[in-house]
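ok trying this again, last paste got cut off
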Amino acid sequence: MKQSLYVGIDVAKANLDIEVRATNERWSVANQEEGVSQLVSRMVELSPALIVLEATGGLELLAVSALAAAGLPVVVVNPRQVRDFAKAVGRLAKTDRIDAGILAHFGEAVKPEPRPLADAETQALKDLLARRRQVVGMITAEKNRLGSARLPVKQDIQRHIVWLQQELARLEKDLGDKLHQSPIWREKEALLRSFKGVGPATSLTLLADLPELGTLNRKQIAALVGVAPLNRDSGTQRGKRKTWGGRSRVRAALYMAALVAAHCNPVISPMYQRLLAAGKLKKVALTACMRKMLIILNSMLKHRTRWNQAVSPVFGPCS
């Protein structure tokens, strides 16, 4: 019987370090077209059960794209999840980096499900959205500096803020154009925006950073985003249930949407008030509202159904 092979790939800017779990075969290739081509050829020969890489801020995209295009089972995992696994098996000190061997071991033990790679249009939207977040962050930083700056530095900061605001306007136009070029995205955005509390920034984030929305069940989507409360029990002790992990950018967008929906959405607002009346902290109540919103939005996209705005006429429109 042929042994299943699990491969880990440690991604760096210059190189890809590869290790095969069963055979302990190790080698490196350049993180460029030629090196990735060599990697794909070798992986096709090995026919592994799973190839595991960690998310590294985009450095992994070239390799993942090539492996997925070759029909190989590849998955990009959350570094925190792998780090916790490594600590559990005694393979990782606090300052050690995750290596290819740890990734291969994680793949064999956990067997994460391979997910389809985002298509080129989705990746382009994601890149534009990431750049928009960067520009917004730079505007905020420059405005914070403006208060304590003196001439002529103050004038220089003001000019930079004006330029950044122009860049932000251009990026938002590009995002809008990109969104409306795709009939599928137009339909999804219209469905998401029909939910009271979901604005353009939230809908864009969901489309770009959560392409699985509408394809998973309620428990899976909540766990993927990181809004599902997890048990922290030991023996007879029962710890507090907490949310952790998941996709931080999606959670941040949902948090802002929940703040709005808590005041005007005919389902979320009563839920929020009920939780506060029961003694829940505001943050806990908002997290519960985020999960409820996510489940509703997931169902809306799955069934291609608009939000029923006639649920209750009592609450006014969201601004």
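PB: full thing came through this time. The beta strands are 6-11, 15-20, 26-30, 50-54, 74-77, 233-234, 237-238.
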